[in-house]
Specification:
The protein is built from nine helices and ten strands. By secondary structure, the chain is α/β, with parallel strands linked by helices.
C-alpha cells in the first residue's frame, strides 16, 4: 500500500519555477515581488524558513474571547444590554465609565452578571473614577481577581484591594504606511510606560487592525517579538505572556456587506496570531445598534462554531511566507526602535 506522499508526483523547486513562469507566459517570477513603504520588498513565494532571526513568537495557549465595549451612561439600561449580549454568546465585557458611579449604580449595572464566569474590563476618564465604590461593591460579592482587569496608564488612584487587578494598557495601530517606523514609535511609548510601572505581567496591548490581512499578521507577531526584546533589555522575563485585545473599526462609508466581509478578514488575521480578546466595533451611524452588535458577534461565532478557528492554536506557525514577513518587519521595527531610544 502506498503512503500518502507516494500518491503525488514530487517536483523540484526549479521545476516548480519553470512551470510558474510558463504560466506567466515568459515573465520572471521575481516580477511578482511587492513592497511596503518601509523599503521592505517581498518575493511572491518562499521555499525555506528564515534563519537570520529567532522567530520565537509567543504562542497562544487558549482561544480568543468574544468581547464588547459598553459605554456606561445609564447603569440600568446598560445592564439590560449586557445581559442580552451575554445570552447571545458574549464572553467578555469592557465597561467604559463616563461618570462617577455610586454603590447603587454598580448594583444596577452588574445585576445578574456572574463575576466568577465573565472577564470584566473597566476603563474610565478622570471624572468617572469610581474605584472606591467598586471596591465597596466587590466586598459584598463573590469575584475572581483573574477575571477583573482595571485598565490604566499609570499607578495612581487604585484602592489597595484592587491593585492586583490593575492592567497597564498600551495602544498599537497597525498601519500600512511606514508600518515599521510607526510601530517602533508606539513600542517606544509602551516601554516608557513599562519603565514607569515595572509591572510587565499586567500589561495588555490594544491593537487597532488595518484592512490588510498580511500587515495585521506580521504586525501583531513582530510586535510580540519586539516586546520580548524590550522586556529582556529592561531586565525582565522575556517569556512573560503577552495579552492583546484586537480592535476592528467599522467606520468607513462602504456598503454594509463589504464592511462585514472586511471585518471577517480582519478577524481571521487577528485570531490567527493568537490574540486573547477580539472586539468588532459597531458602526455608530447604524440606527439599530443591538442588531449591529449581534451581527458583529456572529462573525466571531462563525469563526468558532463553524470554522473551528478556536481549535487550532497559532495556525501561521511554520508558514514560510508569514515567517518571512514577520522576520523582516520585526527586524525593521527593532532597528527603528533602537535609533529612537
Amino acid at each position: 500500500m502506498k503512503t500518502f506522499s507516494e500518491n503525488f508526483t514530487s517536483y523540484s523547486v526549479n521545476e516548480w519555477i519553470q512551470k510558474a513562469e510558463k504560466d506567466l507566459k515568459g515573465k520572471s517570477i521575481s516580477e511578482l515581488s511587492w513592497s511596503w513603504t518601509d523599503a521592505m520588498s517581498f518575493p511572491p513565494v518562499y521555499f525555506e524558513s528564515p534563519s537570520a532571526v529567532n522567530l520565537n513568537v509567543p504562542s497562544s495557549q487558549s482561544p480568543w474571547t468574544i468581547t464588547e465595549i459598553f459605554d456606561i451612561h445609564s447603569p440600568a439600561q446598560s445592564n439590560q444590554d449586557i445581559l442580552e449580549a451575554l445570552s447571545m454568546g458574549l464572553e467578555s465585557i469592557h465597561l467604559k465609565l463616563h461618570k462617577r458611579l455610586t454603590l447603587d449604580d454598580w448594583n444596577l449595572l452588574l445585576d445578574k452578571v456572574i463575576l466568577t464566569y465573565v472577564h470584566l474590563f473597566i476603563s474610565f476618564t478622570e471624572e468617572a473614577h469610581s474605584l472606591d465604590t467598586l471596591q465597596d461593591y466587590l466586598q459584598e460579592k463573590e469575584w475572581d481577581k483573574s477575571k477583573l482587569s482595571i485598565l490604566t496608564s499609570d499607578d495612581s488612584g487604585l484602592p489597595s484591594h484592587l491593585q492586583v487587578c490593575q492592567q497597564f494598557s498600551a495602544n498599537l495601530i497597525i498601519q500600512t504606511d511606514m508600518p515599521a517606523k510607526n510601530l517602533a514609535k508606539q513600542m517606544l511609548h509602551a516601554e516608557q510606560m513599562l519603565q514607569a510601572s515595572k509591572n510587565a505581567k499586567r500589561f495588555i496591548f490594544n491593537i487597532t487592525l488595518s484592512k490588510s490581512f498580511y500587515h495585521n499578521i506580521a504586525g501583531i507577531q513582530a510586535a510580540k517579538i519586539v516586546w520580548q526584546n524590550i522586556l529582556d533589555a529592561n531586565g525582565l522575563d522575556p517569556n512573560t505572556p503577552i495579552d492583546c485585545i484586537a480592535h476592528i473599526q467599522d467606520e468607513d462609508e462602504l456598503d454594509e456587506n463589504t464592511q462585514k466581509i472586511n471585518a471577517t478578514i480582519q478577524a481571521v488575521s487577528a485570531v490567527s496570531c493568537g490574540v486573547a480578546y477580539l472586539i468588532i466595533h459597531p458602526k455608530r451611524t447604524v440606527e439599530d445598534q443591538k442588531f449591529e452588535r449581534r451581527i458583529n458577534r456572529n462573525i466571531q461565532h462563525l469563526l468558532k462554531l463553524e470554522s473551528y478557528m478556536d481549535r487550532v492554536m497559532n495556525p501561521t506557525e511554520g508558514a514560510y511566507y508569514f515567517d518571512h514577513l514577520t522576520k523582516e518587519l520585526a527586524e525593521a521595527i527593532w532597528s527603528e526602535f533602537q535609533s529612537m531610544s
